[in-house]
Amino acid sequence: MSRHITYTFKGQQRQIAFSYDKFHDVYEAVAAAEGIDLKKFLQMEQQIAATTKHKSAIKEFRLSEFKRMGFANIYLHKDDTEQTP
Q1: Pairing mode of beta strands 12-18, 71-79
Q2: pLDDT in tens, 16-66
Q3: Who has greater pLDDT, 85 or 7?
Q4: Taking the mean position of all CA atoms in its chain, how far away is CA 59?
Q5: First-residue to last-residue Cα distance in the chain
Q6: Any idea what DSSP says for residue 22?
């Protein structure tokens, strides 16, 4: 099963291959594809996770920060090309 990500970066639609062997999640993958360093972002995300009681705060932070960086419409697609008998 192959996976790919489609996303919009600064108004341009793009598509990349994705593997959990290389990245923890789709956000790390798209940031790496665009050459964006996530060290400070990940530190802030960990601080929010440690201080909040609601997981929605982490998700909202992630979405707002990636929107600020220029990302939109990030989707993970799974292509099941194998046919089962």
Answers
A1: unpaired
A2: 999 989 999 999 999 999 999 999 999 999 999 999 888 899 999 999 999
A3: 7
A4: 11
A5: 16
A6: T
The answer to whether 18 touches 29, Cβ cutoff 8 Å, is: yes
pLDDT of residue 84: 47
Sole residue written with tokens 């990245």? 23
Please report, as a single letter, which amino acid is at residue 51.
Answer: T
Q: Chain-centre distance of CA 41, in angstroms?
A: 12
Opening angle at CA 72, ends 20 and 42, nearest 5: 50
Give how far the C-alpha of residue 34 lies from the chain's centroid of Cα atoms, to the nearest Å: 12
What does the block give as tokens for 52? 């909040």
3-class DSSP state of 81: coil
Report which of 37, 33, 29 is spatially closest to residue 3, judged by C-alpha positions.
Answer: 29
Phi, psi for residue 81 in degrees, rounded to 5: -90, -15
